Amino acid sequence: MNDNELLEKIAQKDEQAFRIFVEKYHPLVLNVCNNILNNYDDSMDISQEVFIKIYETIDKFRGESKISTWLYRIAVNKSLNYLRSKKHQKWFSSLDVIFGDESKKQDIADNTPIIGDQIETDENKKALQHAINRLPDKQKTAITLNSFEELPYKEIAEIMMISVTEVGVLINRAKQNLNKYIVNYYEKN
């Protein structure tokens, strides 16, 4: 069953079609949420909210963009709304969650680093985590979609509903800010 058939059946409230759709797209949505929220449990909750919203509003999808673009947009908006609703951000224990891929973690675990190297790696992750958390929402979203999701500027522009030029500006500013925040982090520590 192709995506258009799935969407038609979901619009008719076919739960089996919805289950297939969720199984197919849940990894993508979870990864986007996780890259923004930096917390697996919160990302699982928000990804469920994304699919509830899709089920409830499927008739509003006009097919003018790719399904993945539509899903990215909803996942980004839900994640950012969640961050805004929190009174203060939590500090997270590891950036491994951001990068997601369990198979890569296994490869890394199999090549046990020297203790000094591990301490340096942990400190670098902490510095990057600190810097990413300080970025303004739009910069964080643009850099996350580009660097972690590897999306082209055009698709990021569609997801964020801004121009391609603005995406480039946001990513450049994010890189400058990350550099500044990381330098600042190491100067303080």
Give descriptors for this structure.
Rna Polymerase Sigma Factor, Chain: A; Arc Repressor Mutant, subunit A; elongated
What is the general shape? elongated
CATH homologous superfamily heading of the largest domain: RNA polymerase sigma factor, region 2, helix turn helix motif
Radius of gyration: 18 Å
- How many domains? The number is 2
State the distance separating the first and last CA atoms: 55 Å
- Briefly note the CATH topology name of the largest domain: Rna Polymerase Sigma Factor, Chain: A
Count the E strands: 0
Can you give the mean pLDDT?
81
- What's the total helix number? 10
H/E topology pattern: HHHHHHHHHH
If classified by CATH, what would the architecture of the largest domain be? Orthogonal Bundle
Into which percentage range does the β-strand content fall?
under 5%
